[in-house]
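note to self — DONT lose this again. spent like an hour looking for the file last time. sequence + predicted structure for the chain T wanted, 940 res
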Amino acid sequence: MAASSEKCRFTWLFFFISFLHLLAILLFTRGFLLTRTELSSSSNCSDVSQSPCTVPHPPENVTGSDRRVSSTCWTQPAVDRLLIIVLDALRIDFLAPSTFYEEEKPWMNKLEVLQKLAFEERISARIFKAIADPPTTSLQRLKGLTTGGLPTFIDVGNSFGAPAITEDNLIYQLVKNGKRVVMMGDDTWLQLFPEHFERAFPFPSFNVKDLHTVDDGCVDHLFPSLRRDDWDVLIAHFLGVDHAGHIFGVDSTPMIEKLKQYNVILEQVVEILKNQSGPGGLHENTLLLVMGDHGQTLNGDHGGGTPEEVETALFAMNLKSPPTTASSIFDSSSCRLNVEGKELCVSTIQQLDFSATIAALLGVPFPFGSIGTVNHELFTLVAGTWSQQNADAAKCVDMELWMQNYINVLCINSWQVKRYIDLYSLSSIIGFSKEDMLHVGELYAQAQANYSDSIKNKHLFQKEVPIDDCMISLSVMKKQISAYKNFLHGVAELARSKWTEFDTRMMAMGLSILLACLLIQFFWVRRVNKLILFGNRGSSVRFILPLLLVTIRACSFLSNSYILAEAKVANFLLATTGILNLRHSVMKGSIQVEAVVFLLLSIFLGWGTEHGLSKQSLGSHFMNNTIWMLFYEVASILALVLLAILLYKNIAGKSWWPFMKYFLLSGTFLSYILIAVYWTFESKILAISVGVEGNVKNFIPRVIYAIGFAQLALLLFCRIFKQKDMTSDYCESVMIRAIAMISIWSPTVMVVLGRQGPFVALVLIMAVWCITSLQKVAHDTKGDTVVGSFVSEPISVTQMSLLAVCLFFYTGHWCTFDGLRYGAAFVGFDDFNIVRQGILLSIDTFGLSHILPIFCLPFLVALKHPLGNQRKEIFFADLTKVFLMYGLITAVTTTFTIICVTIHRRHLMVWGLFAPKYVFDVVSLILTDVLICMASLFYS
């Protein structure tokens, strides 16, 4: 077969495999990542007449001091105004006293004003630990808070371009029922609710390097609005803590400063509210909520389902205090002494309950799709939920009347959830099973059976209740409340376990195509291998160990524990190959330096992964020490110099096209110098950055990007227009192209990665050198011809794949959305552009784990073949086999990930762990296919 014909067949093979992978992923994703069915129905005031519950009526003579809206919908309005201050990514330990934790941290006890209020106003003010449902990105949390439903994973893809919410939600109900809603801060609110606000002051939210623009905008509009009476609900969404976490981490000076700033702002807000909270005052009956939408890890990230991410804080204070009996009803809070020796309590609330609770307090219908429960502790804090008793009224009587009110609210709450679940099961493609619906029906029937005629017929606002019967009545009503809560909690748990609809037919089609593609890839690997060996035996044995390693890693994805420990698994397998290489060299009679170095590199990567997840990366444990910080900053520059020397030696000694040679050298060296200057500006020791404007620092990365783009364009121009290399040796020609690609990409990758970039690049270069050198020792030439002795080893390709995985984790990434280093997307830029920031974030995430390793694969072939000593067809067939094996390894691991999410699609961790792993692996497979297609064209 002619060389050109065979080469063309191999090139089109890569594109055909890529097409099959893309088709399989699209089909499987279409079946797996379906959102729940969003019903178009919405709640109306008149709907409640269909419920079996008693609809409350307001007191007849509403005085001027009672500013509540006199009209009643589903529930009696309990507050006039609602002020919601959202502090994005508010961890619970930002607000709860440090005495609730084993060790006091620098970021604790900074929101002193809220802690003080929770102690002094304990009847009308309380701190809650709010539990969110993963995924914990802002889009899902805002959607979940306003709809009262559970988040769906597919919305993660919309986090950078949120679509308007079309299903029934709290904001829609407020506006529909005459409430004036004002918003300021994070512009995500305006994207979700584009036509709902009376006034809106949105500010761009995606520039995580900007800690102040959104917060300053909130402050500018918040204080004037608090003195105006043209709103009923005011939302102020601050972003500084979230951005400080993404860039600097929780344990950082900017984070502490932000928390102190918030404490001052909240102090001023409370002062304004209290000054106007007297009888007839503007805020006589205002409810203040200070809350987070989600938490964050110590590294400042969020998106997953760890306790740090799902646990956030909520502070509630009603300006109008309820009766003293309020504190004794269903109080399940945890209390401890604060740092001043005063007892402070923290309760717990599910964010799922937020929408139903607020709707009940404001007297608007619950959103149709809400499955939350009206929270009793938050309901208790509001004075308007209590009947107006005389000062000498018995506490038991007062409590009984409140419980009657709460029972009726729970009755409406349960009726709403039941009608939604019934309609959802009928309207959706799959819905809930008959067994599930029977269970839900039984729970609801039990709750309604306890709703006795005496309670149904008892007027909610009656003034007199026999004191003798009070205690008996309380016991009965507690059982009724428990019955309703059992139903509501049962529905919530059912929805959590079976919310998402899966199209198993589409999933099976996608998985089948992927499995078929694996057979095609394996067939072509064997065919190309036989073509190289001309039918000689001895090659099959070499596939056993790589196949075993790949299978072990792939099977580990079937366990959520091993997915969490994926970095350790990959590093263990890589180190295992290093030990086997060392053992093999010893058995040959000598210890190769490359075997020892490779094993040490594996150990170093394993150690570095444990410390590579912090904002300061490699030096995270030493950043508080000035000497270690200086050493780290100087060492990164020295590593950059070493890379430049290695590059010069490899470029200077090759027969390049002259213009490209000097342009490549000068451009890359200039980029390296600019990187060193940029890091000097960013130095934590020299403090040069204080006097340098942001535009100047942004200019340097942009120049580096421009140089890399110009070099890449020139290199591709030379290839497209068949510019001949200065060497006739095809092996050296491929090496020149590989070095060129690495030198072009490396400056951009390193400036985005930060100071750890040169260290990791050196690790990659040294590891590739070791793997290439060890091929000759690991090769068993028995039974092979001379040609066979130069065939690339499958174990070498497997080592490259494992090395790429280890580099991914070593650079601080993780297969969850909180593992994305969002700050890297803004290196060189302050404003947000979804395409530009998406490219930079992709380079940061996959630069040293995909782009550079794949363009390094030709070294496994070029450095092994004696220059000019092999047939050209054999050389390029061997190169094709390397690409095929690398793609096969990636496809096998991705296939097992897909099998894993198929098996665990009803697992509790499906959206918090398995689905993010699936997304990262399919993106990895698609990127690998694209890069291999590009590399096959470029190197052939």
